[in-house]
Amino acid sequence: AFTYYESRHSQIRRAVCKFGKSIKSLKFRGRCLESNEIPKFCAGGTLEELHLSTSKIMKDDDDSRLLFSSLKTLTLSHCNHNGRAGALLSECQELKTLRLYATPRCGSICDVAQKYGKLEELYIEDVNSQTTRALLQLNRQIKKLNMPGTYATTFAMVSKMVNLEELVIRSMRGVSRYINISKLAALKSLKVL
To answer: Computed from CA positions of residues 136, 106, 90, 38, in that sequence, does the dihedral angle turn out positive or negative?
Structure first.
């Protein structure tokens, strides 16, 4: 695993240039992702897990698409994507885990609200309710869901997720009337925090 937390750009460039193809997990915080070093040197390698925090999503080019196509886990935390995320995230066909923290609103539904065919785990925090509803509607195959209980109307979608095995709800205030647990036949674990 390689973690970069806003040190000098030359340090990240040297490390990614030298070891990019062998990095499996990359945690990145900062502004350097506007440059093409990470996709250029990591694409086509073994990168499976990418955590972006307070970053701008990289350019939509061949290297970036190749990089995103191999991801199994993606975390976006306070990232600014300026509408570029949609094309890159549509390449995430191997994605099994998606974690969203405070993603900005982009039009009525954020670019991250897409169908991810192999998505099994979704973690949502501070994401607008329209994006949350769209993600749940498009990805009913999810097995693990962790979300706030503040979006009461979103829980009608949760009741339709027949493969859901683990549900974590942070704050159940006003939600109980919207969710029908009896419809969740595969549910093995329910946690209310």
So the answer is: negative
